[in-house]
Amino acid sequence: MRVRKLTFAALAVAATLSLTACNDEDLTGQGDPSAASTASPSGGSGSDSSNGSEKAGGQQGAGSESGSGGGGAEKCRTDDLDISATDGTIGGDTEGTVVVEFKNLGGKDCVLAAYAGVDLKTGSGSLSAERTGQEADTTVLKDGESTFFGVTYPMNDSGGSGVSVSALLVTPPNETKSFSVEWPGSNTLPVTDGSGSSVKVGPMGSAGQGGES
């Protein structure tokens, strides 16, 4: 009886070793299909990374927004937008704020990518606003709806006459035609040493209705 028990135990160990060897051969031979798919170094991840960088610039973002609700909308054109500006400065602010509104009157949805171009008409010539550098997404502006962005500028607290401002020249994203609106902010800007623009423009949607930024 004892010899027979040992024989059965030896057979069980041999069967276990054989099964383990078969499994090892499966893993190191042809390979598991799912493992091969995971190991691919040049699949969708590289493409996604490229798309992400394009989106930061606005172009890819437009396609993404259109696919998720834009319905293939085209860029918003100057002639299809009602463009206006209001004073959004709140008492106690260290900077003045002008809120620009884009209202879509084109009869269909359209796309606004990132930043609009903004220039101030001053007594010393044209002054271009610089981008704030905030993250800028692409916006699908539905027909009849509005979006807002802010323009900030330094207050003239010097006591001097400063530089007079008469108008705001606005160019929608990816457009070449500009639209001039009356400047609703402070009448003057402080005189600078010409080292750079002190007027900043935020991305589309960076200000809320009524001037909230």
Overview of this protein structure:
- The chain contains 4 helices and 13 strands.
- It has 213 residues and is α+β, with helices and mostly antiparallel strands.
- A hairpin with a 7-residue loop joins β10 and β11.
Total number of beta strands: 13
Largest sheet properties: 5 strands, mixed
Oligomeric assembly: single chain
Measured distance between first and last alpha carbons:
90 Å
Strand order in the largest sheet: 2-3-9-13-7
Average pLDDT for all residues = 72
Total separate domains: 2
Which stretches are poorly predicted, pLDDT < 50 over at least 5 residues? 1-70
The general outline is: elongated
Structure summary:
This protein has 213 residues and is of the alpha+beta class.
Keywords:
single chain; 213 residues; alpha+beta; Immunoglobulin-like; 2 domains; five-stranded mixed sheet; 4 helices; 13 strands
